[in-house]
Amino acid sequence: MYGKGFMLVMTERSRVIDEVRTALANSNISFAVCDVALRNNGVEKRHLLPNVRTVPDGIFEIITKQKEGWGYIKVIH
DSSP secondary structure string, 7-75? Predict the structure, then answer.
């Protein structure tokens, strides 16, 4: 997640926290948050749900995954 997407995995801010916790319990699903986005928004990693990992740069992570054959779906509300 990049931009403000990290709010999805924040206990205090997520509107779908129960669904996220259920997804995190599935070994085939993981969540990764951009360190740059956290830093730019003054959010510390401790505010994220357990088992949510961070990556140095979210956009770079997406590009790297796409080169490996992964797909990318952007959802905007």
Answer: GGGBTTT-TTHHHHHHHHTSTT---EEEHHHHHHTT--GGGBPTT-EEES-HHHHHHHHHHTT------
